[in-house]
Amino acid sequence: MRADRLLSILMLLQARGRITARQAAQKLEVSERTIYRDVVALSAAGVPVYTDRGPGGGISLLEDYRTTLTGLTANELRALFMLSIPAPLEELGVGQELKAALLKLTAALPEGRRGVETQARQRIHLDASPWERTAQSVPYLHLIQQAVWQDQRLRLVYQAPFGTRIETLTEPYGLVAKASVWYLVCACQGHLRVVGVSRVLEAEVLPETFARPPEFDLAAFWQGWVAASQAERPQYRVIARLEPALLPGLPRQFGAEMRVQIEQAAADAQGWVTLELAFDSFEGALGRFLSWGRAAEVLAPRPLRLAVADYAGQIIARYGE
Predict the structure, then answer these.
(1) Global pTM?
(2) For 177, phi and psi rounded to 5 degrees?
(3) 2-61 maps to which CATH number?
């Protein structure tokens, strides 16, 4: 176990150049004292690792030192070779590069482990695309990617909601693919903005560059933006009685917090449970309750209850014979 950790520290130092003991401890889920002991062990083994104290200090290797040792375990190799080339990477034009990198990794493996790739790919396949995906045109994706990589300002014309055309100068910080849909995270007049790449009507990379804020974290920003967007999304709330057979599937449909509501709800004499459910719209709620049939009863709001009854009456009228 310690040998794996020593190798992980070595790989971290080669990849990042310099890290603090706290960063290494968080990454490897051990104490800082353990990291310092491991650094001493690496040094005793002949690895040119050294530490600098004070602000800006940390642990690092001599600049010219590199090792070709991968130290990949069989399970780590399987995890790597389970990777499929997702559609967003193909759209970026780096699918072939990823395939080439995995091929080089295979060639560098010991003879006894070269069958791991075939074994993994024949047993696990990852398909991240949704069942129903509407193809989106992203003709300016490569141009935007160029601006992102080179920290160059970008002139954009994009279509906002309700058909409004907006022209703006942006500082493109990064690209994010969510459910195979691309979004640009950029700064416009000092404010961060998210623009769907499929909405871009014109794009021009400008010659001037910009200074990316050193504290900006793309993944952290995106996580917060998604959470805020979901919290602000209009919701249509429904009070309903549900039979027990529906309860196990609700957390998957309405989120993990639904488990708490189910656990706290008291069943009535028939074993049914009254819950509050949140839908994106009236139409979405109507479709869901019609699909549940007699296993659910809308208590409120009254317009939805009447709509379900009306649709049920129409269905009976059509199939009543």
Answers:
(1) 0.59
(2) -110, 115
(3) 1.10.10.10
